[in-house]
Write a structure and sequence with these properties.
The structure is a homodimer. Chain A is mainly alpha-helical and about 120 residues long. The first copy, chain A, has a single domain, classed as Arc Repressor Mutant, subunit A (Orthogonal Bundle). Chain A has 6 helices and 3 strands. The first copy, chain A, has a 3-stranded antiparallel beta sheet with strand order 1-3-2. In chain A, strand 2 and strand 3 form a beta hairpin. The interface between A and B is large, with 73 and 72 residues. Chain B binds a DNA duplex (30 and 30 nucleotides) through helix 5.
DNA sequence: TTAACATATGAACAATTGTTCATATGTTAA
DNA sequence: TTAACATATGAACAATTGTTCATATGTTAA
């Protein structure tokens, strides 16, 4: 939120009051946090990943279980698990040839439920 | 979650127990809802839109105010407001030449705060 | 060791997305 | 009416993304 006024905007005159500008600047999280937050939601913004997470709400599962439940290829699931792993939303443990994935976050369920409330309100 | 077993998967043998499969099928939301949920999070999955929403937490604002606060062009903001409008996350009112946007949802703030908790835990 | 199998991953591809630029649309003051 | 201005929007473009296909990697049983 630094370096304002540098880029030209169409509207020359501001409607907004100074104290609101100040409040926004005070309450807006840092650029890095905003970026991370967007990255987190981006991960949730794909229905395959949503389904994987929703399956893992129930129990830990191996890759082929998830592929079976979601009726998708092992490769597609594996690629998406990598994304979830990178976002630190799932953890995994290897047991022989099988790799079991499970959720690694306490907030996901609440975030999903709140999202569902939004969906349901507008149906 | 219908029509399983149609697509071939690499792993022939399931590790998962039948009662877990049943639980997942019971608790997994309907395909349409999962899709809508993903669409909602997709909207949150962009830092420009996150910033717009965070600014609107403070007060209703016109397009040029938002452009000024975020140091972006009017056009970019306008395009993103259209996305937010389509997701029914913002409403607007016209006052002369100016159009004021405001938030149209009670869940957003809680969802964002929970997302932030996730971010903060892993820093 | 080797065959069998679960999983991971790189390359390719089509599809989607965010911004810019130019310009259309809507509104008001003169 | 018309000029000025706030906003909306279509086209274009580069960048990102999800899946598929082929195959590499890791593990175990024989």
């Amino acid at each position: 939120m630094e370096e304002k006024k540098k880029k030209a905007i169409t509207c020359g005159q501001l409607i907004i009051h100074d104290d609101i500008i100040k409040k926004v600047e005070e309450n807006m999280p840092k650029e890095d946090d905003l970026y991370d937050l967007a990255e987190l939601f981006k991960v949730f913004g794909d229905s395959t990943r949503i389904k994987i997470i929703w399956a893992l709400f129930e129990s830990e599962m191996c890759v082929c279980d998830i592929a079976y439940l979601l009726n998708m290829t092992q490769s597609a699931i594996s690629h998406q698990l990598r994304v979830l792993k990178a976002a630190r939303l799932v953890r995994y443990r290897r047991s022989g040839k099988t790799v079991f994935y499970s959720l690694d976050d306490n907030h996901i369920k609440q975030i999903f439920e709140m999202g569902m409330e939004h969906i349901k309100e507008r149906q």
